[in-house]
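Appendix B: complex inputs.
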Amino acid sequence: MRTPIRPEWFLLILLWGLSASPAPAAISDARQSELLDLLRQDCGSCHGMTLKGGLGPALTPERIQKKSPQMLVETILQGRPGTPMPPWSKFMTREEARWLVDSLYRGIEHAQ
Amino acid sequence: MHNKSHPTRYLLLAAILMLLSACATQLRGTGDMGVIIERASGSVQVINTTQRASLGRVAGLGDLSHASVVYSRDERFAYVFGRDGGLTKVDILKQKIDKRIMQSGNSIGGAISQDGGLVAVSNYEPGGVRVFDAQTLELVADIPAVYMEEKRSKVVGLVDAPGQRFVFSLYDAGEIWIADFSQGREPAITKFHKVGKQPYDGLISGDGRYYIAGLFGEDGLALLDLWQPEQGVKRILDHYGKGWRQMPVYKMPHLEGWAIADEYAFLPAVGLNEVLVVSRRNWKEVTRIAVHGQPVFVMARPDGRQIWVNFAFPNNDTVEVIDTLSLKKIQTLKPGKAVLHMEFTPRGEEVWISARDDNRVSVYDTGNFKLKAMLSAEKPSGIFMTSRAHRIGL
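Resulting structure:
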């Protein structure tokens, strides 16, 4: 037996689909602060807590401005073979990695 | 008789003043003291391990992520090596900064010479080692880590060795260098080339004989016998580090504080949830002990009877204890979120453990594993007690 679907539901689903793909998915304030903490503390163990570099390269806005966001997002999610950079895809979504990259471009001292 | 200017009155006052000032500057030793690094706030807390208490805070030390500390041989001054190239000499008795310099742009650790006269710092940027007068912090020697003619390498795994020497590894160059200051302020440098790809940390055995570097870029460890340096650097534990390619590693294991107990050396497996047990005689693997996560620090209690292990993200809320006779896990503790470091009291009856994300340091009895005290600290990382002053390599 078919369940009738009301036309306004179609519209809703369509709108939801449109809004989900181009605009960044909303990341809650709590999650943002978790991500920044991860960045400072755990990424910071190689890149420096202020991201001025360590065993890993500096991630300050000046140092990454020439690198594409796609490349940076991939590096976060997949890691970089041949270097100590591990993949972080188990701990964040692509949207969250993208949000981190945007925060890096702005500089994390401006975040929150 | 109520004459206000009677001389005995002044004498009494002077006596009281003297008594008061004597109280304020009461004599004490520093053998039961230490510091806790507060990595995010650029401060250290000065602690007393007998009272299990914090005595105060010294601030203004810069970026202290991954900071480490060595002590003057009189155990009064803590030399704090900051990430931002800052070198701070803290007077733990007065609880204030005695001297502070910015000696590079980015540094990773340091060491103090056998005679206590020189403090060396290993730098990422510009890559090399700088050596300072321990008293004045004036520059004594600059050793740029130059390889392939003009390239500068990051320097890691800097330790002191007997004979007024410093030993360190060049991460980018794959070399180990010895800087010998026994003849004065001009060091004699001995270089060992092609020791392996990307040495990322180093340690020296407690007797000062063996320098061992962990390699990121290939399997195995690089071993230099400092009693017979002419024999060159050998590769040991050929399979060590294979985990780099099997499992992602979220925190590089530390080699400093490598546990040597009984006839075994205990070391963190790379990328695997295991502690490796290796024979000290031939450096061959004896067995592996399954543990809770990827180990970061594998440390022996000073008497060697227990091995304490903490772990990398995301398993870093746990500490496990291994018995060195049975090679079995005997205890699991949950000291808090993001356990970064453990430090035993000089003879090991207690251990201090920092939990960064819970902003606290816990003190446990190592005999019955009971919690003895808890101190609050801001994002605590390393804990360094003054007894390090008299140990080679620390």
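The CA atoms of residues 6 and 12 of chain B lie 11 Å apart.
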